[in-house]
Design brief:
This protein has 9 helices and 10 strands. By secondary structure, it is of the alpha/beta class. It folds into 2 domains: 119 residues, 3-Layer(aba) Sandwich (Cobalt-precorrin-4 Transmethylase, domain 1); 123 residues, Methyltransferase, Cobalt-precorrin-4 Transmethylase, Domain 2. It is elongated, with a radius of gyration of 20 Å. The chain starts with 8 loop residues before the first strand and ends in a 7-residue tail after the last helix. The model has no long low-confidence stretch (mean pLDDT 90). It binds S-adenosylmethionine (SAM). The site of S-adenosylmethionine has 25 residues, from helix 4, strand 8 and strand 10.
Length: 269
């Protein structure tokens, strides 16, 4: 088909936190119709099976030899939309939660390209939930803050200082390199005993976690060798956490694949 014959449209689709089953039906429908899919590093590649006929392009910023800049990604979206018509831009979690989704739709619209958004299940809520941690809980936590550990200037968001003074559950994304700094802020607010959990690769087979207090967490993370991508959850809600295996045991009792990968026996009751 000639470029002039195609109707360019880019749908930003949230791919959820990692478990490929945590995808919306709307996302599946968009993938089936897509002529091309451009996807991120945090997207589980199993999800691409919903788009068997589409051209697929990995445009993540963290694996392989080439790391795409946001400007390059924006230009690729424009050129693929013009070439293929209906394309899906598949992003980890939800496209509008620290996903630069708005930058991409603004750029595309500037070129007269139609855009649409299909929200996804954000890791900020789903990853804590996968280990039994609710972000709010009656009589325990009345609100939750989702904060970036790394702002555009690479610094820790100032909001962490404000959040540390509140009774809110605090969820920090992209914060692993700032963990010591975060712990110091809580200590300065006399909250060294505050429960904290860190979950790396939540909802995926390779998930890892560390649970402790502000006083112990830096040491625990070193001991367990946790790194990015990980979610940091701070607050009393962490007290109700479960083990990582609970997620897989509860949800995939009959899924042999998961058990083979985790090297554990399914629970039979
Ligand atoms: C650029 S942000 C994107 C967030 C995404 N839009 C969302 O809604 O989940 C990437 C950060 O999200 C967090 N993250 C995403 N998926 C995760 C997962 N499965 N387990 C732990 N953290 C995750 C990590 O903090 C990671 O550094």
């Amino acid at each position: 088909m000639k470029e002039a014959d195609v109707q360019p449209k880019v749908t930003l689709v949230g791919a959820g936190p990692g478990d490929p089953d945590l995808l919306t039906l709307k996302a599946v429908k968009a993938l089936k119709k897509a002529k091309a899919v451009l996807y991120d590093a945090l997207v589980n590649e199993d999800i691409l099976e919903h788009a068997p006929d589409a051209v697929k392009l990995y445009i993540g910023k963290r694996k392989g030899n080439h790391s795409y800049t946001q400007d390059e990604i924006n230009d690729l979206l424009v050129s693929y939309a013009k070439k293929y018509g209906k394309i899906v831009r598949l992003k980890g979690g939800d496209p509008f939660v620290f996903g630069r989704g708005k930058e991409e739709t603004d750029y595309l619209e500037h070129f007269g390209i139609k855009t649409a958004i299909i929200p996804g299940i954000t890791s900020a809520i789903a990853v804590p939930a996968s280990v039994g941690i609710p972000v709010t809980q009656r009589r325990v936590s009345e609100s939750f803050w989702v904060i970036t550990g790394t702002t555009s200037s690479r610094a820790l968001s100032n909001d962490v200082k404000l959040a540390a003074q509140s009774t809110a559950t605090v969820i920090i994304l992209m914060g692993m390199s700032k963990l010591s700094e975060i712990a110091e802020i809580y200590k300065a607010n006399n909250r060294a005993d505050m429960p904290i959990a860190i979950i790396q690769n939540g909802t995926k087979e390779e998930a890892k976690q560390a649970v402790g207090t502000i006083a112990t967490i830096v040491h625990l993370v070193k001991e367990k060798q946790l790194s990015s991508p990980a979610i940091i959850i701070i607050g009393e809600v962490v007290n109700g956490h479960k083990s990582l295996l609970t997620y897989f045991n509860e949800q995939f009792m009959e899924d042999d694949f998961i058990y083979q990968n985790l090297d554990i026996e399914p629970i039979t009751q």
